[in-house]
Design brief:
The chain has one domain: Rossmann fold (3-Layer(aba) Sandwich), CATH 3.40.50. Helices cover 42% and strands 14% of the residues. The protein contains eight helices and six strands. It has helices at residues 2-5, 10-26, 38-47, 73-79, 93-96, 107-123, 146-153, 177-192, and strands at 32-36, 54-58, 82-84, 104-106, 131-136, 159-164. The strands form two sheets. A four-stranded parallel beta sheet has the order 1-2-5-6, sandwiched between helices. The longest helix has 17 residues, at 10-26. The protein starts with a helix and ends with a helix.
């Protein structure tokens, strides 16, 4: 919830996904990490620390959209608790109806996400696992070149970008979801069969 987000840091988010990795790793399974948006940033950061089998990062920001308030976001978060969301970029409003989403962004969480993105950027050369990046050309939530910037800095030799059309930021739920799921399935199969 937004209230919980006010009490957590990017380190809390990272420790949570690290705990999940440790639980799965103790079961002796091959682990693919998959994330959307902030989850993609966490997936890439996790892959820079642990030997994952592969990474699928969807709609993952390399930076936050330009906003003159960003340099002051940390002190601003002490004065302004929440920031209104921008206009939705869903291409199919029917699909958006059952999507669980926060009605606004906790300002402190924006500061934490900015810090997490900075850590991810530093760690990208350490990501050597096969990686599939997915981004919609119509995503209004993150800067347009994010997937390419991430791709260019990844340490992995096995990496690809799937650019999709006719979807907004939530590519795994919007109109291109079939294309996204098929690409993810093929990527995982390829890596598991030794082609990655």
């Amino acid at each position: 919830s937004p209230r919980n987000m006010l009490r957590t840091t990017w380190q809390d988010w990272f420790f949570s996904v690290s705990d999940g990795w440790h639980m799965l790793e103790s079961a002796g399974k091959s682990i693919f990490v998959v994330g959307l948006s902030m989850g993609g940033v966490l997936s890439l950061t996790l892959a820079s620390h642990f030997p994952v089998k592969g990474v699928i990062a969807m709609s993952s920001p390399y930076s936050l959209p330009d906003d003159p308030r960003l340099p002051f976001i940390r002190p601003l978060s002490l004065l302004v608790r929440n920031v209104e969301k921008g206009e939705s970029d869903w291409k199919n409003p029917e699909l958006a109806k059952d999507h669980v989403d926060y009605p606004y962004y906790p300002t402190r969480s924006i500061a934490e996400l900015r810090d997490l993105i900075a850590v991810m950027r530093e760690r990208l050369p350490s990501v050597t696992a096969p990686t599939l990046l997915v981004q919609s050309r119509e995503d209004k939530a993150i800067p347009a070149g994010s997937a390419q910037f991430i791709y260019d800095r990844l340490g992995s030799k096995d990496k690809e970008i799937l650019w999709v059309e006719n979807s907004g930021h939530v590519v795994c739920r919007d109109l291109a979801c079939g294309t996204v799921f098929e690409a993810a399935h093929q990527f995982i199969q390829k890596v598991c069969q030794g082609g990655g």
